[in-house]
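TA notes, week 10

Several of you asked for a full example with nothing omitted. So below is the full record: structure tokens for the whole chain, then the designed sequence directly under it. When grading your own attempts, check the secondary structure regions first.
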């Protein structure tokens, strides 16, 4: 008996005498591989809120995803020596980097610029003023930032077109050069002397919602194909 299958899903005889109904079960969606990037303390600070938050996210987990963390020392060489090898070895499907920004607000970074400057924690300046010699001047983040904010977040949310020209911007730019579907960056208020539990309680629900909004299970398709570009503060 042949192994022919009816295009209409009718039972068709198989070589082993059994019948195939024509119903094919869909394979489960691939497990999300999430890389969370934070930074070590700098400028004499005891804590870096980005490290506090990404380690808390890794500890609590993210709905069925494989989560790994990269903590970058605040030195220029960490982008090439720590971040890039991690991206290549882990092969994330989603990257969210977090850095400390201005007090009393959360900034959602929409672009990275091909520019860098400033002295790092070792007193070193970058070898040149660009991130990638032949790269575009500006690269857009591949992350959806418009969603319903958790009630726990009382800080204002702002959309930013300028991630600066220090390590945060270089990190975002280099991540966006990789073939990763979803890449975003969030600047959070400095943790300073705040207790980790209180700091996490305010910001973790927002970060979890943001990641889930951009995950395979929630969006179903690729953010770079979403033409809607919010241009005002979101809240």
């Amino acid at each position: 008996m042949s192994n022919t299958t009816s295009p209409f899903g009718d039972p068709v005889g198989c070589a082993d005498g059994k019948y195939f109904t024509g119903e094919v079960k869909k394979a489960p969606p691939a497990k999300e591989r999430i890389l969370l990037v934070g930074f070590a303390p700098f400028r004499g600070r005891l804590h870096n809120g980005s490290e506090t938050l990404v380690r808390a996210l890794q500890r609590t987990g993210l709905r069925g995803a494989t989560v790994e963390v990269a903590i970058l020392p605040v030195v220029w060489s960490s982008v090439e020596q720590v971040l890039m090898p991690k991206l290549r070895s882990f092969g994330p499907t989603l990257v969210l980097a977090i850095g400390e920004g201005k007090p009393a607000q959360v900034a959602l970074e929409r672009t990275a610029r091909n520019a860098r400057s400033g002295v790092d924690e070792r007193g070193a300046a970058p070898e040149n003023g660009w991130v990638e010699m032949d790269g575009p001047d500006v690269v857009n983040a591949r992350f959806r930032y418009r969603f319903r904010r958790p009630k726990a977040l009382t800080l204002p949310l702002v959309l930013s077109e300028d991630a600066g020209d220090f390590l945060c911007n270089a990190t975002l730019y280099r991540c966006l050069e990789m073939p990763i579907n979803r890449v975003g960056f969030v600047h959070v208020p400095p943790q300073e002397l705040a207790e980790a539990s209180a700091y996490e309680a305010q910001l973790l629900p927002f970060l979890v919602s943001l990641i889930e909004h951009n995950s395979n299970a929630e969006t179903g398709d690729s953010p770079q194909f979403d033409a809607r570009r919010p241009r005002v503060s979101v809240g």
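Helices lie at 49-60, 77-90, 167-177, 196-214, 216-219. Use that as a sanity check on your answer.
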